[in-house]
Amino acid sequence: MTTTFPHLLLKHAAERPGAPALREKEYGIWQTWSWQQVAQEVRHFACGLSTLGFTRGQNLALISDNRPHVYMGFVAVQSLGGVPIPLYQDAVASEMMFVLQDADIAFAFAENQEQVDKLLEVRETVPGIQHIIYDDPRGLRHYDQPGLISTADLIARGAAWDAAHPGAWEAGLAQLQPSDVSVILYTSGTTGKPKGVCQTHASFVQSAAGGVQVDGLNASDNVISYLPPAWVGDHLFSLAQWLVAGFTINCPESAATVSIDLREIGPTYYFAPPRIFEGMLTSVSIRMEDAAAPKRWLFEQCMQLARRVGSDILDGKPVGFLDRVLYRLGDFAIYGPLRNVMGLSHIRVAYTAGAAIGPDLFRFFRSIGINLKQLYGQTETCAYVCIQHNGQVKLDSVGQAAPGIELKLADNGEVLVKGVSVLKEYYKRPDATAEVIDEQGYFHTGDAGVIDADGHLRIIDRAKDVGKTNAGAMFAPNYIENKLKFFSHIKEAVCFGDKRDQVCAFINIDYEAVGNWAERQGLPYGGYVDLTSKTQVQGLIADCIAQVNADLAREAGMAGTQIARFLVLHKELDPDDDELTRTRKVRRNFIADKYAVLVDALYDGRTEQFITTQVKFEDGRTGSLSATLALLDAKTFAPATVDA
Description:
CATH topology of the largest domain: Rossmann fold
CATH class of the largest domain: Alpha Beta
Number of domains: 3
CATH architecture of the largest domain: 3-Layer(aba) Sandwich
Largest sheet: 5 strands, parallel
Shape: globular
CATH superfamily of the largest domain: ANL, N-terminal domain
Distance between the termini: 55 Å
Number of helices: 21
Mean pLDDT: 91
Strand order of the largest sheet: 4-3-5-6-7
């Protein structure tokens, strides 16, 4: 039966009062809240908000890393009939301003002094922000601005108010309906201003229940919550599924300690976007490059075996006796230690979503025994459209329609979705809502895809990004970029080719991986810009691109989209410079405009190009970065004639 987040919390508190609900690592020690303690703090948090004048229908902004009081804050606000709105904690004050104005924010929750300072800065322009609740009091002792109150003081006030008004909180909770908006999540704004996606309790609860059903999630599972609370993926996995399945959420001490905390907790259920798995593979590659020759040889032999039979063993498919024995030995020598160093030893199921994952990267993790699967969805669909079932994982698909979801393709190949997870509306934007939900109730995802005979969906690219070269070859930039990012030396890639004679690419190196490689080569360098300008580094990237082109030459219809020319960009693409969204998606059109002189130079056949680039620092200051970039030709191949 569909219910609401606060009612699910009370259900767990009644049935399993002493079971662990939340953990947080503070000063190196894990602190635990039971379900009963969480329910009590949520109640008093909500009552504290009532004393400040927060009422049904109001919005409250939350700006924080993953902290217990953030997740409690979501439910506390919902219990009063209010709507929580999480913002990206790494956004600068000017970025937050649009959402705070658009959502008419009068109440805000801030994790610490840094976030309080941002809100106070915004309040100079947006005076409607009346109350700021801060969680960590360090550095705020002498702040005397009006409207500031600590979480501890708010909860204490709420406890006193609750005692003086028995039954008042329950009366408000009784008005809450599954059809009420439970959260507003703002889109990342790849093509314009962010839009507020209104999702109901019913949509997220039913989406979470579908995932719980498919993977058998239960109260004994453990997850580590480290992704931005403003991202729909965290809202599904760290809030909705937590309250449906009743497992334990673990909040890391800081972003810098996530890998250590991951190994300490040993989660059974794990979720990360592809960039996290790319980072893990890069770390493994660096460690193996530094290893002794015998260990590198053993690693390569074991990985060849794993690529051949690992996924089949994971899926329970027939594998020869000798291969099973060799794989078991490989698990003891290589795969098990690899899983352990990544903190994934106890994983029963892992998911990736948020962007397409390269098949090679996907194959690597499954081949070493990690049950990694893909989930497909958007903010507008609670990150829940397709899901991969155990034993039915295809490397090039995102799975079948999830429980409660109806899937079909438009005539132009666009993926259309109807079902439990579809947004109620865009906040204050009926025009935008009408654009994406048609008369039959289907949400238009904007993604181009194909559905195979088994009902598996394969995403080609964003429909607006898929184009054609002048020779008529289909150009899917994201598909090519993911192939490039499989290489540990490449952190980001941006490809161009629509309505052009050939495909060209910008490459961002992975500074740690390439720096490690340079040191082993005895190649001195004086920072990121200097490293990218080295001819040896450019040759390293050229080898990676040649391997991608060799793959494309073998694929039907893709030979015409091999990368003809490329450059190694002199700076990392950065959300602070508006080149990436806060979820690290490429803002392709913005990059094409910002670096138009480089794009033109690549297509004009030039061999080098000078550019001065404006950059933005974390403290809001701006500066410039100048460099002369080498423009290089890539090795290409005739279709389907490349030797294996």
